[in-house]
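Exercise: predict the fold of this chain.
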Amino acid sequence: MWEPEDVARELIQNTAAGKSLGEVRQTMAAEQESGAEPTAARARAAQAARRAEWRRIIVLMTARQMDTYRVADDPHAVEWAADRAARMTAAKQARRDAADELHAEVWLNAATSRRGRAVAAQHGVSVEQLLCHLADRVQSAPDEALYVEPFHPWTVPAGRVA
């Protein structure tokens, strides 16, 4: 979800916020002079992304003649922040959806299993697909009895794999 570029952009944008062009250049130079070159591939990617973001901010500030850097005045930063927020929202929804899913292993007696296989074969679906159709369509009557309206099992319910 968070790529090295995302982390670098956010960190650099927050560091550059409120600084003049001279201060941004100075901070970039100081960062590049400090420490040894990282050895891990991910750390190298993050370092390269940080350098690229510093350069991008300097170019933006120069082109727009900005006195101080503000994330809100940086169209790329605003776009990237919106993209990050959308990815985070999607990831949270995926986690919620995964928590709501039910993976069940069902043991049926021989007679029920034979009947299920026969009905599934008659309609050209697997027993698992037939059970998904039944579970997807089960309803509760006012008297709490369970029932399933007649349906055609070759019509795959929304969200199911054929």
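Check your answer against the key: The first strand starts at residue 139 and ends at 140.
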